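Weekly modeling sync, notes
Attendees: AB, CL, MP (scribe)

Item 1: holo prediction request
CL wants a bound-state model with zinc ion before deciding which constructs to order. AB pointed out that an apo prediction alone won't tell us much about the pocket. Agreed to run with the ligand included and paste results into these notes for async review.

Input as submitted:
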Amino acid sequence: MTEVLPPSPDIWVDVVVTTPAHSGLGDSLVYRSDRPLVPGTLVRVPLGSRDTLGLVWAVRDTPPDGVNVAQCRPIAHALDALPPLNDHWRTLVAFAARYYQRSLGEVALAALPPALRDLQPEQLTRRLKKQAQWASDASAAPADLPALSDEQADALQALVQATQPVLLFGTTGSGKTEVYLRAVRAALDADPQAQALVMVPEINLTPQLEARFRERFATQGVVSLHSGLTPAQRLQHWLAAHLGKARIVLGTRMAVFASLPHLRLIVVDEEHDPSYKSQEGARYSARDLAIYRARLESATAPCRVVLGSATPSLESWHAAEQGRYRRLAMPGRIGGGALPRLRLVDMNHQPKHTAIAPTLIDALARRAERGEQSLVLLNRRGYAPVLACHDCGWKSDCPHCSAHAVFHKIDRTLRCHHCGHTTRVPRACPECGNLDIAPVGRGTEQIEEQLAGLLADARRPDGQPVRVARLDADTTRAKGSLESRLADMHAGEVDVLVGTQMVAKGHDFRRITLVASLNTDSGLFASDYRAPERLFALLMQAAGRAGRDAAFVAEQGSAVELWVQTWYPQHPLFAALARHDYPAFAAQQLEEREAAQMPPFGHQALVRAEARTQDAAQAWLTLAAQASAGLPGREHLTLYPAVPMAVQRVANVERAQMLVESHSRPALQAFLKAWQPVLHATRARPEAKGLIRWAIDVDPLSL
Ligand code: ADP
Ligand code: ZN
Ligand code: ZN
């Protein structure tokens, strides 16, 4: 770390810094250096009046054409105490930038821990000293490992030999985690430097998994990477991985960009989970990048990649059907337990205004009396989605969004779930003064309240009243509250847990024998073509929380059940659900997708525009589409008309989008690349005045 002051600079360095695409600065900036630097070195460079973190991308002996040598500024510092980011890492970043249509600098710098951005060379030296004392030891295996089931043993054996990406199609409770643990063990044992990356959708939702990894691979070998860490922790963990000291990185989608110089295994747990797709900045899919990365790393030595799920994404399922992925199935549950039996509750035959069918209440009471737990799923938080006045028709709309503000009874607020705008519940209708304004519809808060009342007479085996708890974004906001709620559930402190899709994630609850879904139908007829896939996965995953301990179920003599309240019991989705037949469901969905040439058969990108007026947002999109004639790939594309987004206005910003579709991924890619500058130039058109920002979403998950 020497101060570089070039009296006679002779090295020219291309440095990438965080510049958004179209800042007019290009992908990298040229600086000079008076000593050799290797690509991948982090540097501090002057940019305007600031000093910023950059990454050396290329080094040259002669200044590049068209660069004004006199204007090239010297690099301020090279952070070369840190080993450079290697070729594979840079190739991954370059691919992600290209594929998701972002600038190289934006993706590269966003992939680094934020604390690195402001780190001065002296601070880095101190950090590295700390790391030097950090001994990695992933070898402390606990004495007794469970004997693998035959299915697990077969899957593991196939997995460690696979040359293709593996889709581990294991039913809920089949013991996928144990297979991951053994696969990681095998990878680390095979090579004293090997590293493994294990990705999970939301790390806080599954503290159990992290605990299992820490327990199995003595703490120092495991670091986590996710947004819940402090900047200092994240830097520390990132450095441990980058220096090869951490042998295992456990993280959320961002971890796909971790620097892992000896990466030999990537696990993507619950690979169907939408949280693997980023919804801001570069809208990357960590699952798709994991596949790319494993292939890239394999150029040096084999790097395996495993996608695991009981309800794979249709993309992955299709890839397995085509033979691009190797499918390994684990259809049985550990202990031989059965999956829940489906009980459809026909809402057409219930008393008027029924929220929870009387038979279901009764079933919940009987379970609690026997010391069994139940889950009640309702994908809507708050007390009621809207308050309304029945005299004048007033509704609790958010003043800033085209959405209702949700009624939260606990603190008597109306809260917009899109922009966060919060007001007190009015005493009377703001329009007509009517005192009788009432909630319409139901959320988790209300169901929790109703259940507590309806189950008031039931007693647990210990004679205590039945305990109802709630798990959703509102009850888990405070630090540690999610963990404590899950712990209460595991400890049997709670009899009935009401919650949003959070309750359906990979939890290994042992005493649940009943799962109920209340407002299921919203997913049946949603306009988004992925809605059935999502609903099916949600119900299968929720069902998968029940009957996980076969011995407990046998002892209790209980029937394990999935209750679904619906107005459409004849819907074909339920027939496949009753059989737990994901392959049949997937086959039927893929057939429809193929007929309509939708993903994974067709390829899509969305251009999203935000503007002060809906007209401006749409005008910009329409003009950019008109200006796209003749661009490469254009003849293989369909550009749909600009339309308002589902929630058209958020925080007083109007939103519109345009769908671009093609049967050819290369054509779509070539087109987007050529279209970018056109999109940018169209901003200057008077019709687009009022455009605030725009972004491209490649392979969007929701339309
Ligand atoms: P999945 O992720 O496939 O739903 P888990 O990995 O959570 O399933 O495993 C389900 C349960 O079975 C867990 O409690 C786990 O500890 C247990 N388990 C897994 N493999 C074995 C095994 N070979 N022997 C005994 N118990 C096992
Ligand atoms: Zn009114
Ligand atoms: Zn709002």
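Recorded for review: The pocket of adenosine-5'-diphosphate (ligand 1) is lined by residues 146-149, 152, 170, 172-178, 334, 506, 508, 548 (CB under 6 Å).
Action items: CL to compare against the apo run; MP to circulate these notes.
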